[in-house]
Design goal:
single chain; 368 residues; alpha/beta; elongated; binds 5'-O-(N-(L-cysteinyl)-sulfamoyl)adenosine; binds zinc ion
């Protein structure tokens, strides 16, 4: 499994956490089923937004990245999001990335423009298969999400950058393509191909990455290897605040680290997110935390009972809910139902509270 990781120029917000929670549920379901999971996540530790923010703050881009990576990993650990098998940075992968760009160039699907290397969309087989978008929508999103449809000299406005030749004042690395740095999509293609090979099970991230990122990345892998990168794509709904997608560029953020500083318990944050299905976009509001806090209190009280109703059916219900496209709201409802009965009527099973607690902890990552 490959999940697109953060660009570390700002602390992890609830949108990021919600995306990595979805992958964490897949990881937990697979492990529960006895699979060995190889889960790779990149870190975009060199890219335009990171350089721009570092310049605005007057700090070195490497220091900014290290600092934000540390905060992100602490937040993820606090939320009991199991770490990937490997976190792979772009800076440590420059050779892998430039090698893949060379393979694409040698296949004839790329061309040079003033020292930069572009993928020619005309050579992308099945372009649009992942996003299902019309060309006009593609052009709009490409412009909004890091692309350069306006650049003159390209064969097609949708052609995308594989390798950016060195610019004065920008970091650059030596490569067979000359000194420069990678374009965005190729980092994920190269890292996934190296660590997982083509044909791995799940590739994904937030739904803001469907186009252009995953469409263009899939085209790169198909061009270089002749096969699909992943059998399935998983895209997580956007978390918003005040009617807009929560995003670093808009600045309308609720940070996981801030909530923790304010004393909100990590399992409460996790419960608030689990109340939303991973594919649905939703808005963070002030109502989230009181509901999650109350739920945590009731679960905790039930798990502390000396005896309760048999929890084996609860374990089965949580497994069944997660098997149904990671239906976490249904899983929470199953624990709520067991909790309500346990607190209202008690029970006779002395092992049940521990089994219920272990179910919440192991499958849902809610440790109470
Ligand atoms: N480094 C690239 C991916 S290679 C990137 O998109 N970084 S990011 O820091 O902007 O986002 C990290 C992850 O969080 C991505 O999977 C992205 O799709 C997801 N994400 C960003 N904002 C939100 C949001 N508001 N709601 C849900 N997921 C989000
Ligand atoms: Zn990515």
């Amino acid at each position: 499994m490959y999940a697109c990781g953060i660009t570390p120029y700002d602390a992890a917000h609830l949108g990021h956490a919600f995306t990595y929670l979805a992958f964490d549920l897949v990881n937990r379901v697979w492990r529960d089923a006895g699979h060995d999971v190889n889960y790779v996540q990149n870190t975009t530790d060199i890219d335009d937004p990171l350089l721009e923010r570092a310049e605005a703050l007057g700090v070195d881009w490497r220091d900014l990245a290290h600092r934000e990576i540390d905060v992100f990993r602490e937040d993820m650990a606090a939320l009991r999001i199991l770490p990937p098998t490997s976190y792979v940075g772009v800076v440590e992968s420059i050779d892998l990335i430039s090698d893949l760009a060379v393979r694409i160039r040698d296949s004839g699907a790329a061309y040079e423009l003033d020292g930069d290397l572009y993928f020619s969309v005309a050579d992308a087989e099945d372009f649009g298969r992942i996003s299902g978008l019309e060309r006009a929508q593609m052009l709009e999103l490409f412009g909004e999400r890091g692309g350069d449809p306006q650049r003159s000299g390209k064969k097609d406005p949708l052609d995308w950058l594989l390798w950016r030749a060195e610019r004065p004042g920008e970091p650059a690395w030596d490569s067979p393509l000359g000194r420069g740095r990678p374009g965005w999509h190729i980092e994920c293609s190269a890292i996934a191909l190296d660590r997982l090979g083509p044909g791995f099970d799940i590739n994904g991230g937030g739904s803001d990455l469907i186009f252009p990122h995953h469409e263009m990345g899939a085209a790169e892998t198909r061009c270089a290897t002749g096969s699909a990168n992943a059998h399935n794509h998983l895209h997580v709904g956007m978390v918003g605040l005040n009617g807009e997608k929560m995003s670093k560029s808009r600045g309308n953020l609720v940070f996981v680290s801030k909530l923790r500083e304010q004393g909100v318990e990590p399992p409460v944050i996790r419960l608030a997110m689990l109340a939303h299905h991973y594919r649905s976009p939703w808005e963070w509001t002030d109502a989230e935390l009181p509901v999650a806090t109350r739920r945590a209190e009731r679960w905790r009280a039930a798990f502390a009972l000396g005896q309760a109703p048999d929890a084996a059916p609860l374990l089965a219900a949580v497994r069944a809910a997660l098997a149904e496209d990671l239906d976490s709201p249904a899983a929470l409802a199953a624990v709520d139902a067991w909790t309500d009965t346990a607190l209202a009527e008690g029970g006779t099973d002395t092992g049940a509270p521990a089994l219920a607690r272990a179910t919440a902890d192991t499958l849902l990552g809610v440790a109470l």
